[in-house]
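Review form for a predicted model. The reviewer records the input and the model, then writes brief findings.
Reviewer: anonymous (R2)
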Amino acid sequence: MVNLILSALLVCFGAQAFANPIGDVEGTVVGVVDGDTLDVSTGTVAYRVRLAAIDAPERSQAFGQRAKQELAAMVHGRRVSLRCSKQERRPEGQRSREICTVFSGGMDINLSLVSLGWAWHYKAYAREQSSADRNAYEAAEASARASARGLWGDRNVVAPWAYRRDLSKGVRE
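Model under review:
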């Protein structure tokens, strides 16, 4: 009977741990899904991580593969610290993602991608950032645009949210 109760408690507490944001965690990047999504392992738990406050081109979009390569060059196989604020709600059957700011070697990787011109500051979620972070991300994007770094070298670059919207309407292939 004691084993049954302990098993039930573990199941309840385990489910609770995955239902809430994970907070601050350290782990190793074991996979780069695209320009703003990583797989991170703590050694006991694996997390799918969506980089907070940025949006990189989709894999099938212009610069999508390049954004993924740049992110991989920064973090793949490396230890990272995650500051996670929430868990993304996903449709049934899709793996949930933690929404996190990723740090490696003291560097804000999310901000670095924006600064290098491989991602947008995702202004739809800017209100979730501190004012200092919001200002830094806005300045990084403005600087990348002005210097034509990364994807900003293309005058016809399409924001990922517009690309996804057009895909859902059947405008793009």
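Findings: Residues 1-20 have pLDDT under 50 and may be disordered.
Further findings: The chain is about 35% helix and 25% strand.
Recommendation: see findings above.
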